[in-house]
From TrEMBL:
The gene coding this protein: trmFO
Cofactor: FAD
Record's subcellular location: Cytoplasm
Protein species of origin: Sinorhizobium saheli
Entry keyword annotation includes Transmembrane helix: no
Name of protein: Methylenetetrahydrofolate--tRNA-(uracil-5-)-methyltransferase TrmFO
Residues reported to bind FAD: G16, G17, G18, L19, A20, G21
Length: 473
């Protein structure tokens, strides 16, 4: 095996070159420790990945809100940037306009991550499927094989952990060729004309529906031909990623209050008439030739998808670059299995990272990869890994996964562990008296208080993260 080893340390093995594994490998190498990154794509694919590129985004191209002042995922972005994240660096350089969100050109992003990893003097990439738990010689290793871990390794993990496999469903949304969207019916506008970084307030394409069109669309969704998935019956959906037809089944108005809400949008072709519902499409590549249907993840059969989505005004002649789909998503019961440095308690030296630990989302997966990489590098150098304070977004998410924050009588493993996006509910409450109005008055009114709490939590997180990293925020 030809490995790059211009370091006195022996290598750490990272299995899986997705968002978490790529970030973990980068952090280890930047700490001066060599890495061998094992990625199976190129030899074996998954049901959702389409390329051999590292850190491929399997569905949406959005890293969600980039607002570090009052949004938890925006705070996580900022903390990752402070910690020298490769994933954030490449996302920032491949940004496409998306209102207040950070969305990326998916190919440009993955190419940038691949180039940085493959050219790093301390990282060796091996294209191979790892079929079992790391052998003894790999004394330090990280498993970051994601929700679509190949079956042999998934079975080996199940045998080692002894726990029943946990799983839920994730669905992906279709992507449309922009030049097949009828712009005599649709118009460009961001909700409430919000202007994000590099944006114009016109970042989305909007398709208007009348009440009659909306009702016909909902009926068609409910009647549509669904993918058969009997073997997975009883597996729950992740609530943040419900298939659109499942939302439609929950009530006629559900979609109009969810992904099809018309608020903050004015039909440029007919400003006097308020649309009853709106379908939004977000730019998916830097060229602006592809747009994804926002919140339209689906398990409808391919034929049914094309037919039903062409009922949407403006999409009558839409051609799809990719249709939606449904995938099983596997994760481990981390609160019982992992310690605070993401090490498997039953096998010192073996860490887990990314979505397989039970976090949810691209940014969260990458951030847990970042932490696992730092912890493993510290261990290799004979240092004690130091977890981030629980007041940071890193620490809040880590504590959700490892269960360290549970102070009730319940054992961590006894609660039902559900994958979760980062959110302010995971952060500890503010210290008494932490909220003060700029004018010095004590009382906040209504929404003002909720916003002030988020802002104070965000600012505490960034300053504590900077101290943890030995930097200034
Ligand atoms: C269908 C689907 C849609 C999703 N959509 C979104 C979304 O829109 N937005 C969002 O924020 N999150 C989404 N997620 C959730 C999650 O953010 C992504 O799955 C994310 O890619 C997880 O990052 P990861 O690094 O943990 O796993 P991955 O990015 O999947 O990386 C794991 C890597 O490990 C490799 N691998 C697997 N088994 C082996 C093996 N045995 N040997 C070697 N290599 C192996 C895989 O090829 C892959 O490259 C989705 C998940 C799924 C399953």
């Amino acid at each position: 095996m030809n490995t790059k080893t211009s370091s006195s340390y022996s290598p750490i093995h990272v299995i899986g070159g997705g968002l978490a594994g790529s970030e973990a490998a980068w952090q280890i190498a930047e700490a001066g420790v060599p890495v061998i990154l094992h990625e199976m794509r190129g030899v074996r694919g998954t049901d959702a990945h389409k390329t051999d590129g590292l850190a491929e985004l399997v569905c949406s191209n959005s890293f969600r809100s980039d607002d570090a002042t009052s949004n938890a995922v925006g705070v996580l972005h900022a903390e990752m940037r402070l910690a020298g994240s490769l994933i954030m660096h490449c996302a920032d350089r491949n940004q496409v306009p998306a209102g207040g969100a950070l969305a990326v050109d998916r190919d440009g992003f993955s190419d940038a991550v691949s180039a940085a990893i493959e050219s790093h003097p301390l990282i060796t990439v091996l294209r191979e499927e790892v079929r079992g738990l790391p052998p003894k010689e790999w004394d330090l290793a990280i498993i970051a094989t994601g929700p679509l871990t190949a079956p042999d390794l998934a079975e080996a993990i199940r045998r080692e952990t002894g726990a029943d496999a946990l799983a839920f469903f994730d669905a992906i949304a279709p992507i449309v060729y922009a030049d097949t969207i009828d712009m005599d019916i649709c118009w460009h506008q961001s909700r409430y004309d919000k202007v994000g970084p590099g944006g114009t307030g016109k970042d989305y394409i909007n398709c208007p529906l009348t009440e009659e069109e909306y009702n016909a669309f909902v009926d068609a969704l409910i009647a549509g031909d669904k993918t058969g998935f009997k073997e997975w019956e009883g597996t729950p959906y992740f609530d943040g990623c419900l298939p659109i037809e499942v939302m439609a089944e929950r009530g006629r108005e559900t979609l109009r209050h969810g992904p099809m809400k018309p608020m903050g949008l004015t039909n440029a072709h007919n400003p006097a008439v308020k649309p009853y519902a709106v379908v939004q499409l977000r730019q998916d590549n830097a060229l602006g030739t592809l747009y994804n249907m926002v919140g339209f993840q689906t398990k409808l059969k391919y034929g049914a998808q094309a037919e039903i989505f062409r009922m949407i005004p403006g999409l009558e002649k839409a051609e799809f670059a990719r249709l939606g789909g449904l995938h099983r998503n596997t994760y481990i019961n981390s609160p019982t299995l992992l310690d605070q440095s993401l090490t498997l308690k039953s096998r010192p030296g073996l860490r887990f990272a990314g979505q397989i630990t039970g976090c949810e989302g691209y940014v969260e997966s990458a951030s847990i990869g970042l932490l696992a990489g730092r912890f493993a590098a510290a261990e290799r150098k004979g240092e004690t890994p130091s977890p981030p304070p629980v007041t940071t977004a890193f620490g809040a998410l880590l504590n959700h996964i490892t269960g360290g924050h549970i102070v009730s009588d319940d054992e961590p493993g006894k609660r039902s562990f559900q994958p979760m996006n980062v959110n302010f509910g995971l952060f500890p409450p503010l210290e008494p008296g932490a909220l003060t109005r700029p004018d010095g008055a004590k009382r906040f009114r209504g929404k003002e208080k909720a916003l002030a709490k988020k802002q104070a939590t965000a600012s505490r997180a960034l300053s504590d993260c900077a101290s943890w990293l030995g930097k200034t925020a």
